[in-house]
Structures are given as structure tokens and as C-alpha cells.
Design goal:
Helices cover 38% and strands 20% of the residues. It has 13 helices and 16 strands. The protein has 445 residues and is α/β, with parallel strands linked by helices. Bound molecules: zinc ion.
Length: 445
């Protein structure tokens, strides 16, 4: 039967894209595992609505003719499906498609951003970020606050998150938008089914029922709350931000106090792994996880801050927002300050060491660096790329390309907002048909 959410099985891998492998473009076949298998007429229609909506998300505005060509569905069927999606307020008619058409130009169809949004709420060791995306992926609300999470009880920290999410819900409601879901994005290992943070070593959390806690804070009328890992959310945000024809496979590695990773392969998000705890620290220092010599002890944010500045330096002050502290250090690097540059060179060496292993194991065409690694991209990317190029076994071997995320420090929250919207992309019929209004009716079906 139809799995209704990715993550309910806990593995994330499996049947994505199988239902329509022959009829959709490669880009339209599932980011997330568990898209519906058509069993009857109603579920076939749901599946086709889902294919349309995902195709528009991954490829932008299209004419009906183009949609038919790209999905393999008959044009008449596409017209009926588009009319349905317009009635649900999920797509709208856009500009006329004048490119390369002979005769009467066709009207483009695009995702409708006005009514529905998803909210991502990221909790990091030193900050919380709330970000809302509309259905077209545009940011409609963003808020960030410094918070010393390890100093608080989980309940107190989640109370702060709840307040910031409540502010976000009010802000989108004022715009006339409906928030369809909230994803709490956190470090560590997460049980998506029960909404529990199993272990987040950098917060000192163990077995925290985060979804239930946050729902209690938000009250009865709040949208459903999911919990997801930050690296997986970040990988999803990177994938959806990239031109789809370009990126089908990537490994995303994010640097904060912890170091996390997740990969997307064949358009599917795979579960992340504890790559920050690979035994790679040359000095074998103790890690918050209880072991010694973990990679994140060498390349995590704390290692960089310690190498770059004395403990009394303001860049260690947790009451100052991380973006500001990192901006301060970036300024020093740009001014050629030797200690900051030496710290970055050390991070690049140890980063390349771990990425080399990931390349050997996963052989991805692309690695995207996120978190603080992205902030210092111009000091890290080229250095890491050189090492990875040098260790290729043969000059003809496929080259991995390293890039820095362009999405900024809020990219895990952005991925969380995408996940909150995912239910609609899996089954657009969960959104009821809207009462017909002047401006959202079909002009030409
Ligand atoms: Zn560790």
C-alpha cells in the first residue's frame, strides 16, 4: 500500500520513482522514497497529479504541451490534471510561452505560491532559525535567534523554538497563507516515526520527544510537526536549489559544532550517517560522543575557532550570533590575518582527508560543503579540490567537483520547509478544491 510519508520506514530507501519510471523525465522521479504506486483509478490520478506538481517544482514554468512531452502523458490528460491543480490553488497560469512556437503561443503553467507554505525550524547548538517557503520554493518568512542550547534543558530550548515558530505562523497567516506542516531540524540521530531525537551529543540530548514537546507548545490548531536530521535537510535543500538536469547525485557535508553528511543518489535522499565520528583526528582528541579521534574534533567549528582565536576573543562569545562571528573571521581572513589563514589551511587539510574517504566509498560527481565550510568557501574549496584531484587513481578517472553551498546558514531550515511541503508533492489531492475566485480560475483549460 501507499507509504504516506518518507521516513516512516526509517530507511528512506526503496521504491521512489518506480511507479512512473517509464513515463516521467528522470528529474521528476522521486526525491523521496515512497511515492504512490497506482492501484486504481483514483490513486492513478493522485499519482499523475503528483508527477505534474513535482515536474513543475524541478523544472520551473512549462506549457501544457511541454508537460505532456516531458511526462509522456497525453495532452488532454495534462489539461485535465492542470485544471484540477489550478482548482486546488497549487498551480496557476503564467506568461505566454513565445520561445520556439509556431502559430498561437501557449500559456505557461507554474507553481502557485500564494496560499500554502511549509515551515522549517532548525535548532543548532548556538542558534535557532525559522524559515517558511511557499509552494514554489520562495522564502516568505525568515527569523534567526542566538541561543545557547546546551546550557538549557531540552524543554526550555524547545519552548524558545516554539515561540519563534509561533511568530512565523502568525506572520504567514497575516499574508493569507496556510502552513501545511512544520519540520524541526536538529543535529544527531533522529527517529522520524516517533518524532524523537535519539541522540544529539552536542546538545546533551538523549531520547527527547521533540515533536510532541513542540506540538504542545504550539497548541491544538498548529500544523503537524516532523523531526529531521540537519544534514539530510541540507542535502535536500541543495538538490532542490540546483538545476535538475545538472545534479542528480551529490554528497552534502555540513560543518558546525558537529559535522554531518547525507547523500542524494539517483534523485533520492538517502539517510545520512555519522560521518563526523569517523576516526580521523590526527591528535586523537576526545569527542563529545565519548570516543576519541573523531573527524569533527579536527574540522568542526570549535576546532576552527580554537585555532583562529584566543578563548577571550569575541568570536567565542555564544551570545553573539554565529553569522556575525563568522563574518568577523572572514573579514580577518580577507585582510590576510596570518592566524586565521593558518587555521583555515589546517581545516582544509583535515577536511580533504575525510572527503577523500567519502569519494573512495561513494564516488559522487559532486560534493557540496555547507554550514561554516560554505562561509569560508573561497579558502576551503580550491584547497580541498586540489587534494582530491591529486589523489585520483588515473587522470582519466571521473573527477569529483567540490562546491560551497550558496544557500547560507539557513539551508537546513530551508530543507525542513521543503520536507513540510513534501506531503503535497506526494499527494496533491490532500489540498481541497478551492472555492472559485476571480483571480485563480482557469483562463484556458
Ligand atoms: Zn565522536
Amino acid at each position: 500500500m501507499r507509504p504516506d510519508q518518507r521516513g516512516t520506514t526509517g530507511t528512506g530507501a526503496g521504491t521512489a520513482g518506480r511507479a512512473h519510471a517509464g513515463t516521467t523525465s528522470p528529474a521528476a522521479s522521486g526525491i523521496m522514497a515512497g511515492y504512490p504506486e497506482p492501484a486504481d483509478k483514483a490513486s492513478l490520478r493522485r499519482t499523475n497529479l503528483s508527477v505534474m506538481l513535482r515536474h513543475l517544482r524541478e523544472n520551473g514554468a512549462q506549457s501544457r504541451t511541454h508537460l505532456a512531452g516531458a511526462t509522456g502523458l497525453p495532452k488532454a490528460t495534462v489539461s485535465v490534471l492542470v485544471a484540477d491543480l489550478i482548482q486546488r490553488g497549487l498551480v496557476r497560469e503564467g506568461e505566454l510561452d513565445r520561445a520556439g512556437t509556431i502559430g498561437r503561443p501557449h500559456r505557461m503553467v507554474e507553481l502557485e505560491g500564494r496560499w500554502i507554505c511549509g515551515i522549517g525550524a532548525e535548532i543548532g547548538p548556538d542558534h535557532i532559525t525559522v524559515l517558511a517557503l511557499d509552494l514554489s520554493g520562495a522564502i516568505v518568512h525568515e527569523d534567526r535567534r542566538a541561543l545557547d542550547v546546551p546550557a538549557l534543558t531540552p524543554q526550555a530550548a524547545l519552548r524558545e523554538v516554539g515561540d519563534l515558530v509561533a511568530d512565523g505562523l502568525s506572520a504567514v497567516a497575516e499574508r493569507g497563507m496556510h502552513a501545511i506542516g512544520v519540520t524541526l531540524v536538529t543535529q544527531g540521530s533522529v527517529d522520524a516515526t516517533s518524532g524523537t531525537v535519539a541522540v544529539a551529543t552536542n546538545f546533551g540530548w538523549r531520547g527527547v520527544q521533540a515533536a510532541r514537546e513542540l506540538r504542545t507548545r504550539l497548541g491544538r490548531d498548529a500544523p503537524p510537526v516532523l523531526v529531521e536530521n540537519d544534514a539530510e535537510s541540507g542535502a535536500l535543500a541543495e538538490y532542490l536549489a540546483a538545476p535538475s538536469a545538472d545534479v542528480r547525485e551529490l554528497v552534502y557535508v555540513t560543518g558546525g559544532i558537529g559535522v554531518g553528511g547525507a547523500s542524494i543518489s539517483g534523485g533520492k535522499l538517502l539517510r545520512g550517517s555519522e560521518i563526523g565520528h569517523m576516526k580521523l583526528d590526527r591528535l586523537d582528541r576526545p569527542c563529545a560522543c565519548g570516543r576519541t579521534g573523531c573527524w569533527e574534533v579536527a574540522v568542526g567549528l570549535q576546532a576552527f575557532l580554537d585555532a583562529a582565536a584566543d578563548p577571550s576573543d569575541r568570536v567565542h562569545d555564544l551570545s553573539i550570533d554565529l553569522a556575525e562571528r563568522l563574518g568577523d573571521l572572514l573579514g580577518r581572513a580577507d585582510a590576510g590575518e596570518p592566524r586565521t589563514l593558518a587555521a583555515l589551511a589546517g581545516i582544509a587539510d583535515d577536511l580533504a582527508l575525510g572527503l577523500g574517504i567519502l569519494v573512495d566509498v561513494l564516488n559522487p560527481p559532486r560534493i557540496v560543503l555547507g554550514g561554516y565550510f560554505a562561509v569560508f568557501g573561497r579558502y576551503l574549496v580550491d584547497a580541498v579540490q586540489r587534494v582530491l584531484d591529486d589523489r585520483r587513481i588515473a587522470p582519466t578517472a571521473e573527477r569529483v567537483v567540490v562546491t560551497a553551498s550558496a544557500l547560507g546558514l539557513s539551508n537546513a531550515a530551508r530543507g525542513g520547509a521543503h520536507l513540510a511541503l513534501e506531503g503535497i508533492f506526494q499527494d496533491p489531492s490532500v489540498v481541497p478544491v478551492r472555492p472559485v475566485a476571480q483571480d485563480d480560475g482557469a483562463r484556458s483549460a
